[in-house]
Structures are given as structure tokens and as C-alpha cells.
Amino acid sequence: MPKQYSTKPESFGEVTSALQKAGFKILLVFSLLILAVIVIAQPQNVYVAVFFGLSWCAISIAGIIFSNYKEPLAKLWAILTIPVAPYLVISNGLMPATLVPIATIFPILLLSNGWRISAMVVLACCTFLVPFYEGDYDKGLWLRLCVTNLVVSLLIYALASQLEKALVESKNKTLELNRALASEKQASAAQSRFLATMSHEIRTPLNGILGLTDVVLSHDISESARPNLEKIQRSGLSLNRILNDILDLSKLNAGKLALEIIPFDLKSTAKDCVAFYAQLAQNKGISLRIEVDKTLNTCVVGDATRLSQVLNNLVSNAIKFTHQGSVTLGVSKGEASKTHQFVRFSVKDTGDAIDASEQERVFDAFTQANSSINRMHGGTGLGLQIVKSLVEAMGGTVYLKSAVGQGSEFYFELPFDIADSVIGAKEQESTPSFSNLTVLVAEDNALTRS
After folding, report:
1. pTM higher than 0.70
2. DSSP 252-321
3. Is 341 strand, coil or helix?
4. 90 close to 135: Cβ distance less than 8 angstroms
5. Residue 332 pLDDT > 90
């Protein structure tokens, strides 16, 4: 059942204040119009008419400047208008009566409750006072003017009331939406804190397990025990990768993932990715290739680690879902100048295609194209979400093309500043060696400390 929004007093107050602000601006324009009519028409009681126009003008200017006093100024306008408006009609006949339809909008905008009704009734009935005018007037025109003014006044009142009601309802819905968004942000922040805390808490004993497993495997052990220890090690490494993904996702969602800006070589980064997965591709009997545009300036400035993370995720996914054929990592040159260039990265495979209906969902967190994927291949569904977030953080957008029988292609384009040179490992200063030193380990976990 949809939620019913109540009209709260504070919402009425805010809407009334907004209407008053607009009303004073319109009143200023209308009072200047009245003064212009007075100058042109020269009514009999010109001093009263001028006072009437000037008082409206002064009240409207004060209402615009002194916004904290809008309510008393609006009531002052009503006190001046209720007696003076009928007097002007009785004294001048049809001329001021023709302005009544426009004037009836001001009680709606400036006043509320009984003040609004009283001022509007007085203004709307002013036209009926024309017969008390001592001069000549057209009775047929007067009758038509009476009907017109009455109908227009009622229409203005009805429309303004509906507008006010709609504004209050809109204000209440906006407040409810803001509260819901704030609650969602708090829940998301709590989730991120929980994931980060739990990931760190799990990592501490996991590091101890992996470390001790490495130590045991480095010693002579029975051949019957080694396979089991290696399985423990692989399981631990798999769990460690999942924890890293969760931590990265938490940082990305919180906007706290910092990107490095250092010179690196694009070609070397791409080759390292391919070399890392070459054995895995060979074990599956598929070809893993790399294609680098020869015109590309490979010395750029950016975050090589995060770029490697994106490429590793895409290449490992491509190998996972390709059972025959090939996986190709392409790096090509886009728009370029002397100081910067766009680089297009693509990972294309001949594996399973992704349905068009699932292509948008694959970039969502904890989502895979269908439930059978997790049963067959495992995984958390975080990889492509991290890819998408990292690519966007680096200034690009990742896209997917997939068709049955043609495999899939993930591609994106990133901007890079061109570096003068990339300092290789051999050119860097050698790291000084430390020996015969005592190391203090500050760690409250005995397993990690060992």
C-alpha cells in the first residue's frame, strides 16, 4: 500500500513563505502599472489613488528586502487595501474595477487563512459597487465585468489552492525521499565499514596460515602430506584474492581509492599480464596473444598497478570462459597530441557469449550472467564491478560486445599524459642490503607473529 504523505505545518510555512516572496515581486510590478494608469487617466481623487499605488509599491519593496517581515507586511497590505479599494471604485467607476481580476491574485500569494478570504472577498465584490459611482458608466459593460471578475476570482482561488496543495505534497515527498537516501547512504557506509573490518580481521589469521604453509612446504615432508598442504595453500591464495576484491570494492564505493601518478611502460604492463596467464591458457589448450599498436607511445604517466588489475581481471575472465580458440589482449592508439594520448584496451575471446539481456547486469557487484556460472567456474561476481569502477576512476568507460558464435570483447579507452621516459628497474638505485639487524615485530596475534 503506498505511503500517505501528511501535510505538515513546516511544509505549509515554507510554501507560504515562497508564495509571499513571489507575491511581493508581482505586487511591485502591479503597483508600478497602477501608477502609470493614474498618470495617464488622471482620476478625480488622484491623491488617494497615488497614495494607494505608492503604498503598494513601498510594501512590495519592503517585503522583497526585509524577508523576515513578510507576514506583517502582507497584513499591512490587507489593512490598507480592504477599505481603500472599494472607495476607489465608488469614486472612479469602471476604471479601477477593471483591475480587480488581477488584484485578486495578491490575497492568495500574500495572505493565509481568514486574512486571505477577507481580502479576496472585498476585492472580488468591488465591481458590484460601481452603481454607487455618481458619474456615467456603461451598465452592460458593468454587468459583463461583474460576471467576469467573479468567475476569474473563483478560478484564481481554486487554481492557487490546488497549486499550494501540490507544492506541499511535493515538499513532503522530497523530504521523505531525502530521508530514504540518507538512510541508504548510512546503510551503504555501514556495509563498507563492515566489509573492510571483516576483511582485515580475516586477513590476519589467513596470513598466518599462508605463511606457515609456505614454511612447511619449504622443508622435507612426506609425499602424502604435500598434496594436501598445496591444496591448503591454493585455497588460502584464492581466499586472499577474494578479500582483496572486497577491500577494493569497499574503497571504490567509499571513494577512498587513491590512484598513483607515476611513469610506466604500457607495453611492459600488458606483456606482464599475458605472461602471468600464459601457463593457464596453455593448460586449457587455448591461444593467448597480445597485439600492441606500433605507433603507440608506450611511455605514459598513470597508475600501472590499477591498470594491471583491470587487465588481469579481464584476461582471467576471458580464459575462464573460453574452452577453445583464443584470447587476445589489444592495446591501440586513439586520439593523441604531443603531451597526451588516449589508449584503447580490448580483451577479446572466442568463448561463451553473454546474452544481450545480461550484458548490463554483468557489471553489477556480486552478479554473474547466470547462476550456472558460479556452479561451474566459481567466483564472487566482483571482478567486473571492480573493473568498471577502476576504469571510471581513471577517466574511461568499459563496454561489452558479445554475440553467439563470436565470443565476447570488453574494451575501454583511457587518457594518459605522455612521459619523457620510464625509469627501468636497472636504472633505479640499488636497494641497500640490511644484515645483522634486530627486528622488532609489533603484532598482537601470535600466529602472525610467528
Report:
1. no
2. HHHT--PPP-EEEEHHHHHHHHHHHHHHHHHHHT-EEEEEE-TT---EEEE-HHHHHHHHHHHHHHHHHT
3. strand
4. no
5. yes
